[in-house]
Design goal:
This is Putative transmembrane protein PGPGW. This protein has six helices and no strands. With 152 residues, the protein is an all-alpha fold. α2 packs across α3. The model is unreliable at 144-152 (pLDDT under 50).
Length: 152
């Protein structure tokens, strides 16, 4: 297996150098952008049981659409970068989480809350927030423990 990888790298030296440079660039961008993105999350984002409406809904429809397209492109770029960082240098899991927060897809809110209920993930995000002078995020309540719905 390793011989096959080394052979491929030898045959594609230019591509290998480009990938190494891209990996280094993504690493630097993630180091610079993750604290900013973590600081922008409202502290109640994960603790509320229901999804909030976007603050940008009041914009002109074309401006709102352009902003959503940009936000989703950035989110999917971060997810892809995070996947690369799982095997390359960088903060892969945090980058994937920040990409998930920015992108829109069905089941996103449930997935975000499940990821944020992991103490290690929430601790890493809160560490980034503390470095930016932001209060820690409130942990999501475990379904059933803090629900205001009556039990049946």
């Amino acid at each position: 297996m390793i011989d096959g990888v080394m052979t491929w790298i030898g045959m594609h030296q230019a591509l290998s150098l480009w990938l190494a440079g891209l990996s280094a660039a993504i690493f630097v961008v993630s180091l610079l952008s993750l604290p900013f993105l973590a600081a922008r999350i409202p502290e109640y984002y994960f603790s509320d049981a229901r999804r909030h409406r976007s603050h940008f809904r009041g914009l002109h429809p074309l401006a709102y659409l352009a902003l959503r397209v940009f936000k989703n492109l950035l989110g999917w770029l971060l997810i892809l970068s995070g996947l690369f960082m799982l095997v390359l240098p960088g903060q892969g899991l945090l980058t994937i989480l920040m990409g998930l927060l920015l992108s829109d897809f069905p089941g996103k809110f449930t997935l975000e809350r499940r990821l944020a209920s992991n103490p290690r993930v929430l601790g890493a995000i809160n560490w980034l927030r503390a470095r930016s002078g932001q209060p820690p995020l409130r942990a999501p309540s475990i379904r059933g423990a803090d629900d205001s719905r009556p039990s049946s």
